[in-house]
Design goal:
Layout lengths: L1 H19 L4 H10 L37
Length: 71
């Protein structure tokens, strides 16, 4: 069950990455790299693969903070 939940979370993050790309291309690129899917931001990347964009067991990269911390 935990594996399914985590895989679903990663899938949602991949889709969010594509959706925020027009407004925040640098942040989306950082997210795509952390997900190990630099090809997510290619035009139409999800058109041919609407489901399972992240392979089960794929290694994820380190995600640096996307936004600076406000003190």
């Amino acid at each position: 069950r935990l594996e399914t939940v985590l895989h679903t979370l990663i899938e949602v993050l991949a889709r969010i990455t594509v959706m925020v790309a027009p407004a925040m291309p640098e942040r989306a690129s950082t997210m795509a790299s952390a997900l190990g899917r630099d090809d997510l931001l290619v035009q139409g990347a999800l058109a041919n693969r609407p489901c399972a964009t992240i392979t089960a067991g794929a290694e994820l990269g380190e995600l640096k903070p996307l936004f600076p911390r406000i003190k």
